[in-house]
Specification:
Elements lengths: L1 E11 L2 H30 L7 H15 L8 H19 L16 E6 L6 E2 L3 E4 L3 E6 L9 E9 L5 E10 L12 E6 L5 E3 L4 E2 L4 H4 L1 H12 L6 H35 L2 E5 L3 H4 L7 H7 L1 H14 L3 E5 L18 H4 L4 E3 L6 E3 H18 L7
Parallel strand pairs: 8-11, 11-12
Antiparallel strand pairs: 1-5, 1-7, 2-6, 3-4, 4-5, 6-7, 8-9, 9-10, 13-14
Length: about 375
């Protein structure tokens, strides 16, 4: 079974290399918008959708003749920009996203992708060889195994002005086929004031990285508000603000990776609820900042792929399953838990006393195991 994996490296290009990277960003954006205009014009005149191969031919034969500066940048970057637009149209045709829009110099992500061909991409000890750029200084913190196949690279710039290169590899992975032990299963219940509570009675708190950095962020934003918009001082201060946000994001990502890895190493089956984090972060719940700060949605994505790598499984329970209202001892449904917002409650049927979060996590675990086995709860 073939899989893909990318390693991201921080790169430190020279002034000449930065100039070429910026021009490549602009050319990719220009070609994307030109092909989008061509598609719109063709549709308005009653024509059919133009495939990416024909659009690429149009770029090579027409656009490069009319705009010679397109020949100065990596040809694979322009082709991948056209493929990216084609992918956006395919998603639109499948009704999975809105109609593609034009890229903006100010708002669009600055990146371009290139393909591996004739050894044009090489990862070295202290640098990366890239098409047109030659060798770019880089912090190479890991090297891919020798049996992995290099497929391409993506060069990007974040809001803080830092440059990165993500190198994509393809490798053959043996499928992990081993029976999973239902006794090594755990349920996780989301906590807005932390991260999650487990069916084993453990609460994972989440450091509030955004709240801790609010004073620093407010100070830098005040400085930004006093600068003349569009000036060099304004742009430099804008990058300082972006660096604060980047630091917060890196702290959160590091914490979530470690928590997800610990769970993936210890448990065979992890059961969670399918929650709409975007809906939960709106004003009606009153805890949007806390919800966005803990990064629970990103945590579940990390947890899912880490479990999959180890031949384990993440089971998702429907969000409407009344996990917090069911007694984990006798399965009696108690609506007052939700209506009265009880943190602790006693079952009116069997008299068992429950902590709302731990009880919900246990019910999620049982329902998840039932879904995994395909049986009724008493069969598990």
């Amino acid at each position: 079974m073939k899989e893909n994996r990318a390693f991201q490296y921080r790169i430190y290009p020279t002034k000449e290399q930065i100039d070429l990277i910026e021009r490549t960003f602009g050319c990719c954006r220009f070609v994307y918008n030109q092909i989008l205009s061509l598609q719109n014009e063709t549709y308005a005149n009653g024509g059919k959708y133009i495939s990416w191969t024909k659009a690429n031919t149009y770029c090579n034969q027409v656009l490069k003749a009319d705009y010679p500066f397109l020949k100065e940048v990596d040809k694979f970057a322009l082709t991948n920009s056209i493929i990216c637009l084609d992918r956006a149209f395919r998603l639109f045709f499948d009704k999975k996203c809105e109609y593609p829009s034009y890229k903006s110099k100010k708002r669009s992500r600055k990146s371009y992708s290139t393909n591996f061909s004739h050894n044009n991409i090489v990862v070295m000890d202290h640098g990366i060889k890239l098409p047109k750029l030659k060798v770019v200084k880089a912090k190479v913190h890991r090297i891919a195994p020798s049996d992995w196949t290099l497929k391409g690279a993506t060069v990007s710039q974040n809001a803080a002005g830092e440059y990165y290169c993500s190198v994509l590899y393809e490798f053959e992975k043996e499928a992990v086929n081993r029976p999973l032990d239902v006794n090594r299963s755990i349920g996780l219940d989301y906590k807005s004031d932390g991260l999650y509570a487990t069916s084993t009675g453990v609460v994972c708190g989440s450091p509030k990285f955004f709240r801790e950095a609010q004073k620093t962020l407010a100070r830098e934003q005040r400085k930004l508000s006093k600068k003349k918009k569009g000036s060099q001082n304004y742009l430099e201060q804008k990058q300082r603000v972006a660096k604060v946000y980047r630091h917060i994001a890196n702290q959160r990502k590091d914490f979530l990776h470690k928590e997800a890895l610990a769970l993936a190493e210890e448990w065979d089956i992890v059961c969670v609820e399918t929650l709409d984090m975007k809906e939960m972060s709106n004003k009606t719940f009153g805890n949007g900042k806390a919800t966005l700060d803990n990064g629970y949605g990103e945590f579940l994505q990390m947890l899912e792929y880490k479990l999959k790598e180890r031949g384990k499984v993440l089971v998702k329970v429907d969000r409407y399953y009344p996990s917090s209202q069911l007694c984990s001892c006798c399965s009696t449904l108690n609506h007052s838990v939700k209506t009265e917002n009880l943190s602790e409650w006693t079952c009116p049927a069997c008299g068992a006393t429950h902590n709302r979060d731990f009880n919900a996590a246990e019910n999620i675990r049982r329902e998840g195991v039932r879904i995994y086995l395909g049986f009724q709860p008493n069969s598990a």
